[in-house]
Amino acid sequence: MAAAAAAAAPSRKTETYTDTKRRDDVRGANIAAARAVADAVRTSLGPRGMDKMICSGDQAQEVIITNDGATILSRMALLQPAARMLAELSRSQDAAAGDGTTTVVVLAGSLLRRAQSLLSAGAHPTAAADALHRLATRAVEILHGMAIPIELSDRESLVKSASTALNSKVVSQYSTLLSPLAVDAALSVVDPAHPDLLDLRDIRIIKKLGGTVDDTELVTGLIFDKKASHAAGGPTRVENAKIAVIQFQISPPKTDIEQSVIVSDYAQMDRILREERNYILGMVKKIKAAGCNVLLIQKSILRDAVTDLSLHYLAKAKILVVKDVERDEMEFITKTLNCLPIANIEHFRTDKLGYADVVEEISVGEGKVVKITGIRDMGRTATVVVRGSNQLVIDEAERSLHDALCVIRCLVNKRFLIAGGGAPEIEMSMQLAAWAKELRGMESYCIKEFADALEVIPYTLAENAGLNPISIVTELRNRHARGEKNAGINVRKGQITNILEENVVQPLLVSTSAITLACECVRMILKIDDIVTVR
Prior knowledge:
Layout: H1 2-14, H2 21-42, E1 52-55, E2 63-66, H3 69-75, H4 81-96, H5 101-120, H6 125-146, E3 148-149, H7 155-166, H8 175-189, E4 203-209, E5 217-219, E6 221-224, E7 237-246, H9 266-289, E8 294-298, H10 308-316, E9 320-325, H11 330-337, E10 341-342, E11 354-364, E12 367-375, E13 382-388, H12 391-413, E14 416-419, H13 423-438, H14 441-453, H15 456-464, H16 469-481, E15 487-490, E16 495-498, E17 505-507, H17 508-526
Helix pairs in contact: 2-4, 2-5, 3-4, 4-5, 4-17, 5-14, 5-17, 6-13, 6-14, 6-17, 7-8, 7-12, 8-12, 9-10, 13-14, 13-16, 15-16
């Protein structure tokens, strides 16, 4: 008996009780907060998804109507750190692919729900996180196996993928107009020297109230969302234009320090005014001598870029003036006009000018714009004028057009298409579940659970379209089990069809980015076991 007690003593010393309640509570709170965010945007997924009306709480009372996941989450006032992680996840997807911003959040919410059930069953968070990492790598391989290579010369396929991105938007009824417009704008700025690079900063979107979205157009040239200066009766149309972009002021100089000059004699006052006139007149003569007849003046923060007197002299010289050009637009303007910005009047030379056939002021909607067409040696840029009956429609049309352009950018970077309509998610789910059977232990169990989580996308698509999600997802599984990889949910017909034949396609990069980012975010949330607040 004594020997048995002595043998049991060391084992009692090694037995320790660890209280994990706080860790479980923190992890549970994080998962609950993140899932609440995912559930909030879930109803806006897919072509039949609902829209959200976002009202700002400040005095401006700004209202936005949208179903773009990134826009909804960026406007939410989220306080819980894990909930903010899902908003940043959506922003990351927007930066990486431009589309799928709702999909990535819904996926993350579903993975977290499965992770919570795994933790409740006794799985360790690290084991679940490691299984997620392996699952993401395998899922990307499965998606690559489903992908269809395309060429940029295949305009029809590009238009189809842009249409799929637009079909879930508020302005989906205008997808037949906006899709080709987005494709033409994107392809016009792709540099043959760098065929796999598309910079969306080379595409400028200008919003003008009035008309309908049908009046949206792609302009081969340059548009300024402001009127030409009419202060002294200057010209509003110039042919064979020689255009200068200036960054200096055509106004009397000021001292570098703040000071007052008191003039007590009328003769001195006359002399000051005469010197000002001569100074401005000298500048205008130099501008005219270089042959310039259109002047684009950068907005100045130090002093007035132009005065009434300088506008009078420029009008007498028959020079069309567009003033208050924003500083951040200068690079785009000089690239389009293929000219150089002029920082000093002494550097005003003919070789720094841009040339165009016509510069004119035209009426668009309720206002006027300056339009430059027939630009000689025009740079690789494009301008789109978005029209709409009210500001809410215009803003949503701009966001939708940006998403369509991002889809084209994805295809320029990675030239593969993949079926939409929930087909890739079901295929991934089935292949990953089959792979899980080949594995052993906790990893096999975790991967099986997370594979089932991917079915949330087709389930939600069917639910938002008013279909029976259980019967639709079951039928979809059966079709994929028979080897129909491209079978997906056709929300218009309310049945399962070959989604490629219905022209519902999306870039491979959107799907791979969504699964990778969602898994990464969920892994990070699972590994948090405490929240430490510092002052």
